[in-house]
Specification:
- The structure holds two protein chains of two kinds.
- Chain A is an all-alpha fold.
- Chain A has a domain at 1-92: Rna Polymerase Sigma Factor, Chain: A (Orthogonal Bundle).
- Chain A has helices spanning 4-12, 16-38, 41-57, 68-85, 98-102, 106-110, 118-137, 140-151, 156-163, 167-187.
- In chain A, helix 1 (4-12) crosses helix 2, helix 2 (16-38) packs across helix 4 (68-85) and helix 3 (41-57) packs across helix 4.
- Chain A is globular.
- Mean pLDDT of chain A is 81; it is low at 95-104 and 197-201.
- Chain B is an all-alpha fold.
- Chain B has a domain at 1-60.
- In chain B, 71% of the residues lie in helices and 0% in strands.
- The mean pLDDT of chain B is 84.
- Classes of the chains: A mainly alpha, B mainly alpha.
- The interface between A and B is large, with 61 and 44 residues.
């Protein structure tokens, strides 16, 4: 299997198959990051497409010293901010709606009832809803840092490169975001010894 | 039965409560690692390739199911329906041309109408020429022209600088009021 850098090099030389493979490899991280920043699946799809089109046009300028995921996250960060700057978007809240259940919300991915008993599935769904709510309540810069670090496994340095923030700011944001997440989750009834999710359900 | 995420969640919240930052971070990472990522609708890569101009959009087998074609057909039908309104006067006019006298009369009417339209267009053109001429007169003075060119240059440089400042600073603070 080709590495990300090899794929990027082949795509830059005009290989359609390499670019398709590259899109398939990164469509989930890019889409899910954008989705949780704009809160609307249709807008997220449009912006994620735009991210890959921009990446394709700029592939010749891609510096292989960067991780390809960081480079794509940077494009996603810029594209999302540029979109939100154009005006207040009409958004559809992810929580509890059809989109959350059907198009990649945490509740959808956690609520696979085929692998466990219905009670456990319901608990997982409650936990997912609470997490989704807690993430949504974070400030956008905290939310973005949390998603990159915890969900997509980006390092501090990669987050710095993608968002253009200094290392100290990224670390502080992550620390504060984690505290706020914990506070919200505790407020929603989760924690050691709790049945959890009373508020979420 | 408690699932993996719930255990990680409990460890995370307990670590947060006790101020054990390292453990809290590790538990939260573990909890999120167990979660699959959201996925776009099927065929995402194809749509990206179409948008990037690398692939043409597939036209559905049923042509009438193709939205652009339905829109064009709808517009064509609307235009045809609208055109029916002009059908009686047009037929009346064409029937009037059936005799030699009618044809001459029709020809004269067409020439007269065309002349009137032309005269109106010329009057409007003349009006605009007068305005442009009045505006352009001061520009014949070299000093005025120089000031104008310098002002344009300065404003376009300022605009470009401002745009670079705004677009270069991609910060969430300037996007979300929260």
């Amino acid at each position: 299997m080709k590495t990300d850098t090899e794929l990027a090099a082949s795509a830059a030389q005009g290989s359609q198959d390499a670019f398709r493979e590259l899109v398939k490899r990164f469509e989930r991280p890019v889409y899910s990051l954008v989705l949780r920043m704009v809160q609307d699946p249709a807008t997220a799809e449009d912006l994620a497409q735009e991210v890959f089109v921009k990446a394709f046009r700029a592939l010749r300028t891609y510096d292989p010293r960067w991780k390809l995921s960081s480079w794509l996250f940077k494009i996603a960060h810029n594209t999302t901010i540029d979109h939100l700057r154009r005006g207040t978007p009409e958004t559809v809240p992810l929580e509890g709606g059809e989109d959350e259940e059907g198009r990649g919300g945490l509740a959808a991915v956690l609520a696979d009832e085929s692998v466990e008993d219905p009670r456990a599935a319901a608990e997982r769904r409650d936990l997912a809803r609470s997490l989704e709510r807690a993430i949504r309540q974070l400030r956008p810069d905290y939310r973005e840092a949390v998603l990159m670090f915890y969900v997509h496994g980006a390092s501090y340095q990669e987050i710095c490169e993608a968002t253009g923030q200094p290392l100290g700011t990224v670390k502080t944001n992550l620390h504060r975001a984690r505290k706020e997440l914990a506070q919200t989750m505790t407020g929603l009834g989760w924690g050691p010894g709790e049945t959890g999710g009373a508020a979420a359900s | 039965m408690r699932h993996l995420q719930q255990d990680a969640l409990d460890r995370w919240l307990a670590a947060e409560r006790d101020g054990r930052d390292g453990e809290a971070e590790a538990a939260l990472l573990e909890m999120f690692e167990a979660l699959p990522l959201a996925a776009p609708a099927a065929g995402f890569a194809d749509r990206v390739l179409v948008r990037a101009g690398l692939q043409t959009a597939a036209v559905p087998a049923d042509l009438f199911a193709w939205r652009p074609l339905r829109i064009v057909l709808g517009l064509a039908l609307a235009a045809a329906g609208f055109g029916v309104l002009w059908l009686p006067p047009l037929l009346h006019f064409l029937m009037g041309l059936w005799s030699v006298g009618g044809a001459v009369q029709g020809g004269i009417r067409v020439v007269t109408d065309a002349s009137q339209w032309l005269a109106t267009a010329l009057r409007i053109w003349d009006f605009w020429v007068t305005i442009v001429h009045a505006l352009a007169q001061p520009l014949a003075v070299p000093q005025v022209m120089a000031v104008l060119v310098l002002s344009l240059l300065a404003s376009s440089l300022a605009f470009r600088f401002l745009r670079d400042q705004i677009t270069g600073e991609r910060n969430w603070t300037y996007v979300d009021p929260s």
